[in-house]
Specification:
This is DUF2277 domain-containing protein. It comes from Streptomyces violaceus (Streptomyces venezuelae). InterPro entries: DUF2277. The chain is 50% helix and 0% strand. It contains 3 helices and no strands. Helix 1 (19-34) packs across helix 2 (44-64).
Length: 82
């Protein structure tokens, strides 16, 4: 569908996807689906909300994926200290 969105999981990316990588992919997706590179002022709020919702869903997806031979992002994250 949108060839400029790159795969964000290992081993396609040598390093872990950053928040900027995830947001850029979400923005590309919303642009493609909406047909707008930049929305009109009256559509800006819903456009921005869609980008954030898709970025959040992408983050959850990447955190939950189990790649054979590699740990999930969640498992690699340091445990929170209290």
């Amino acid at each position: 569908m949108c060839r400029s969105i790159k795969t964000l999981r290992p081993p396609a990316m040598a390093e872990e996807a950053t928040a900027d990588d995830i947001r850029a992919a979400a923005l590309q997706y919303v642009r493609k689906v909406s047909g707008f590179r930049a929305p009109a002022a009256h559509n800006q709020e819903v456009f921005d909300h869609a980008v954030e919702a898709i970025a959040q869903a992408t983050e959850e997806l990447l955190d939950g994926l189990e790649i054979r031979g590699a740990a999930s992002r969640r498992a690699e994250a340091p445990a929170p200290t209290t």
